[in-house]
Predict the 3D structure of the following.
Amino acid sequence: MLQDQEVHAAELERTFIAVKPDGVQRGLISEIISRFERKGYKLVGIKVVVPSKEFAGKHYHALKDKPFFNGLSEFLSSGPVVAMVWEGEGVITYGRKLIGATDPQKSEPGTIRGDLAVVVGRNIIHGSDGPETAKDEINLWFKPEELVSFTSNAEKWIYGVN
Ligand code: UDP
């Protein structure tokens, strides 16, 4: 039984989620946390930081050739960001579903961006788009000792593992 639990825990994946400065300024931190938490995902790291523009540029390095890259890096570094790591089965892909499409005009109602944002340049939240990005972004924003590993009492009810 214990062995099953260990195997299950080892399979759990992690993703990097950030409430961007617009989400923080608009008082949406708890709303965003709540959507991941109520789903059944587990918060294993969180901090409030004001990233430098250089750091923001590192975070968005894959977009460095886009015309909006400079403005985007400037915006991410313009104020506090809530950086988080969430853990759970399918959290990378399903986290993106909870977040909704990049452009809030195209995000479905019921998603975070669909319900809470209007324009692409102020879409309030970031989420890693794949396993490699998740690993890189977690390593960029967090030191290993800033993340916790624990079994929550709710897990047997979320995953049905005894
Ligand atoms: N962005 C923008 N203009 C665009 C496209 C994207 O300002 O035309 C911003 C937007 O804030 C988006 C971020 O750049 O969240 C990163 O873009 P990406 O395509 O990686 O979208 P995401 O993964 O955030 O949905």
